[in-house]
Amino acid sequence: xxxxxxxxxxxxxxxxxxxxxxxxxxxxxxxxxxxxxxxxxxxxxxxxxxxxxxxxxxxxxxxxxxxxxxxxxxxxxxxxxxxxxxxxxxxxxxxxxxxxxxxxxxxx
Length: 108
What we know:
This protein has 108 residues and is mostly helical. The chain contains six helices and three strands. Strands 1-3-2 form a three-stranded antiparallel beta sheet.
């Protein structure tokens, strides 16, 4: 058997992606989306929501409160917002803008 035939036989024997059990994937997604914001980030989130935008340097003291670098704080906050609301809370590179739609949801 040639190398090409062996590879083709191996590929043919593999399970197609569309046949992967959906409940397994859905269970993982549900667990992630039900994660509440960690308590230590709530104070920082309240601070972030007080203004429409932030410069990176201004995020440094907020990020230090939770032991992160400024852009890691942005990433962590956006990860939570995306899992919870399906959208990013902090957008842009500088200035970093607070998403107005999510701001309204979080302040209601």
